[in-house]
Amino acid sequence: MEHESSSYIDWRQVWNGMRKARIRPLRITYDKDFERHFLADQFAKDQSNNYEYGREVVKNLSGLLSSDFEVLEIGAGPGTLTIPLAGKVKMVTAMEISAKMVTALGKELGNKQVENVEVIKNDWMKVAEYKVKGKFDLVICSHFLWQVEDLELHLKKMENASRKFCAIIQPSGRDAVVRETYEAIVSHPYQGQFEPDADIFPYIILRQKGRLLNTSSIEYAIKRDRQQLARYVTSFIGRYIEVDKKVSEAIKEFVKKYLRNDFHIEQCKAMVMWWRIV
Ligand SMILES: C[S@@+](CC[C@H](N)C(=O)[O-])C[C@H]1O[C@@H](n2cnc3c(N)ncnc32)[C@H](O)[C@@H]1O
To answer: How far is the CA of 257 from the centre of ligand 1 (A)?
Structure first.
């Protein structure tokens, strides 16, 4: 059964409104190297728990993964999922739009001697459908949905590129340290704009198209030191106010109380959704 989505649940208006509230430029003036440090933090986060997130996702998908699978991962980032996934399949094509991330991921794969991942610098939303039609056994994206303006097109493109399965992994909930630091520093009640939860949108869109999704959840933990935690929080707050030296010091001071033995452990959850190509 396929419904005309606009006459069923109108998710577009909600999606556009939510994206408008959260996709904002980052204003950070206290450290000209913030971007470089933050990039390194993303790799350090995966080292801190030995790719627990990716390992949990792979475990969760073990019923469908096969050693002869060719996989397309969209928005691979630091390889959080890519690296554990590569251990279970024949080949992963990791598509990533950021040139800096592509270089850093390539280096990480080299260091780890992972040879079955091909990193491609490309904008997924601009990839011509005929070029990837039915090329992969699994098309997967993790922590990617907020990057997408046109969710319906993204899902259609995922299905076009797959000959067997598609999967979406999306983290759920934002840690108290982010919410409470935002309220203290910005002096504004937190309105949920940093929540990563977006899994309901593909669920609604695909359900309206008659797809039956398999859903489950995973848990994992991320360890950060004080500097990493302050930068993590700053990456959200900097979308609402300029983070200059004074604000940066206030953030560093505020996050101190969340540390235990100099580290903060974030307990996280994520939704895992997969469906079969019909
Ligand atoms: C939040 S990160 C997620 C990284 C990783 N998949 C994970 O699970 O942690 C999203 C990644 O998608 C990349 N990205 C954003 N838009 C993209 C696009 N249109 N095509 C390919 N990659 C994109 C970003 O550069 C970023 O590295």
So the answer is: 31
